[in-house]
Amino acid sequence: MNATSPAPGRVVLLTTSHRVAPGLLSWPAWQALHAADRVLCADGAHPQLPYLREAGIAVEEAAPTAEEVVDACAGGRTVVVVATGEGEPALTDGLARMAGSGRVRMPELELLPASYDLPGARLLDLVQVMDRIRAECPWSSRQTHKGLAKYGIEEAYELVEAIEDGDRDELREELGDVLLQVVFHARIAEEHPDEPFSVDDVAGGIVAKLVHRHPHVFGDETARTPEEVKAHWMRTKAEEKRRESVTDGVPVGQPALALATKLAARARGAGLAVPLPSGEGVGYELLALAARAEAEGVDAEAALRAAARVYRDAIRATEAAARA
Fold first, then answer.
1. Of 15, 157, 189, 263, which has fewest CB within 10 angstroms of its CB?
2. Residues 31 and 57 in one domain
3. Does 132 share its domain with 182?
4. Is residue 294 situated within a structural domain?
5. In this prediction, what percent of the chain has a pLDDT beyond 90?
6. How high is the pLDDT of residue 7?
7. 172 lies in the same domain as 93
C-alpha cells in the first residue's frame, strides 16, 4: 500500500437497526451488497447474516483493521463492512487516522444506513430491558401487581402535575415513568400460570378497542363534533361491556371529587335527571359543587388543585415574611 497506488476503491459501512426484522434492507443496501467484491462482518451472530447468505451474499466473518480494509480496496475494488450493533469505532477511527496522515491514498468512504427505525421502535428496547431487569434484578424480580399498584398511582399524579406545570422536560420523563408501569405489569403478567398475557396482548387489545370505538375514522359512520365522537364512544363502550347501569365501571376507589364528577357526567350523558341527594354536611356540599362544575364543563379536580397551589404559595409567602 502506498500513496501512488491507482484506483483506491470504495469502503461502504453498512448500518442496520436491530429494531426491525432482519432482511428488511433498503434497495441501495442490497445493490451495494450485490456489487461488492468483499463483504465483511466482525459479528458471526449478526442477525442479518443468515438473510444475506440466503440472498447469495458471501459474507466473510472477519474484523479487519483499517489498513487491511484499505488494502482490500486496492485496484478499484469495493468492500462492504456490515456494522455490528455497537458500530465499528475501531475501524472508523483507524480510517480517520490514515486519512489525516496524508500519506495514504484513501478509498472512497461511504456510510450507508440499510434500515431505519419505524415510529415507536424504541418501545422494543424498553421491552427487552424490562425482560432483563425482571430476570436479573433482585428487587424487580420479586415485584407483583399488588406491590406495584401504589407506584402506578404516584406516577399518574406526577404526570398530571407535569402537565399542569407546563414543564415539557418533566412531561417527557413522567410519560416514560407511566409507560414503565405498563410494561412492568405486562412483563409480570407473562408469568401467570393459568392466564398469562404479554405487552403485545395489551397493545393488541387497546388497538382493537380504539378501532371499534372510532367508527367515524375506521368505519362508515360520521362525526363532525367532539360531542358526536363522545356519543360514538359511549355507545360502543356500552355495547362492549353490556352494562346494566351507567355507573358500572366507575371505580369508587378514585379520589372522591373525581368520583363525584364522573357520576354526574355519566348521569348527564345518559340524559338522566337525577336529583342530588339531600343531606347535611360538607360531603353533600362538595357533591353539589362537583356536579355543578361538571355541568359547566369545569374539571373540578384541576380547579381545586389550582386553588390549592395558590393557597400553598400564600402559606410560603407568609412563612417567608415571618422569617424576615
1. 157
2. yes
3. yes
4. yes
5. 63
6. 65
7. no
172 occurs within a structural domain: yes
- Hunting for cell 491507482 — which residue is that? 6
Domain presence at residue 142:
yes
Distance, CA of 194 to CA of 56 (rounded, Å):
45
* Cβ within 8 Å of residue 265, ≥6 positions away: 294
Q: Which of 113, 147, 167 is the last residue of a domain?
A: 113
User: Is the whole model's pTM more than 0.90, yes or no?
Assistant: no
Q: What pLDDT does 1 receive?
A: 45
pLDDT in tens, 82-141: 998 778 889 999 999 999 988 888 999 999 999 888 888 889 899 999 999 999 999 999
For 302, the domain range is 255-324
- What percentage of the chain carries pLDDT values higher than 70? 98
One domain, residues 184 and 264: no
* Cell numbers standing for residue 4: 501512488
CB 215 within 8 A of CB 221: yes
pLDDT at 320: 95
What is the total count of domains within the chain?
Answer: 4
4 belongs to a structural domain: no
Q: Which residues does the chain have with pLDDT short of 70?
A: 1-7
Characterize 198-236 residue by residue with b for buried, 16 or more Cβ atoms within 10 angstroms of its Cβ, and e for exposed. Answer: ebeeeeeeeeeeeeebbbeeeeeeebeeeeeeeebbeeb
Whether residue 148 is found in the same domain as residue 232: no
pLDDT of 68 reads 93
